[in-house]
Amino acid sequence: MMQNWEQNQEQSGEDDDEISRSQNKRDAEALQDIGERLIKLNNAQLNQLGQLDIPEKLLDAVREAKRLTANGAIRRQKQYIGKLMRNTDPTPILEKFAEWDGSSREQAAKFHQLERWRDRLLTDDKAISALVLAHPAADVQRLRTLVRNAHKELAANRPPKSSRELFKELRHLIVNDNTPQQDTDNQQQDTDNQED
Question: Which of 56, 150, 195, 196 has its CA 20 to 30 Å from the CA of residue 99?
């Protein structure tokens, strides 16, 4: 019986070692992923990271990896970055990544909002009224001209120059407008209800 208990303890100890080794491997892979992402950053982002509490040796290694072109050299440099990452607190780096990801999502959302407005303007005659309600500074005459020209270009199978101009006009209007934003779907429903 005592022998079985000792065997169970040894097996339990081996299981703990196995779990620990597996966790260590996952942690090392996660750090290497962070290192890979560091290499993909542009110089402005690297400079922002340089202002954080990150070892200069790590940033230099990342810059060197960006400079390299030979596959073998890049692979070795990535391994070196992974090694440096093991001695670096990744928290400030991950926080900066989260900040950048958030701003990227915000920019993508704004871009999609502009695309939705342009599509609505090109397909719905009532969309200009909804846009003016949402953004009183809108130049209605310019918007109507761009929409009309975009329809003509589409019918004549010409490049969508006016559609692109309409997008630029919307970007200028919406980015520079300080009017509080409402949901565009709610605006459309309000406009439809007023006309009924």
Answer: 56
- Please state, in angstroms and rounded to a whole number, the distance separating the CA atoms of residues 13 and 180: 62
Containing domain of residue 174, as a range? 103-195
Q: Is 1 contained in some domain?
A: no
CB 134 within 8 A of CB 187: yes
pTM of the model as a whole: 0.47
**How far is residue 123's CA from residue 50's CA, in Å, rounded to a whole number?**
48
Q: For residues 117-125, give the mean pLDDT.
A: 90
Q: Are residues 121 and 172 in the same domain?
A: yes
Please write the tens of the pLDDT for every residue from 74-100. Answer: 999 988 988 888 888 888 888 888 888
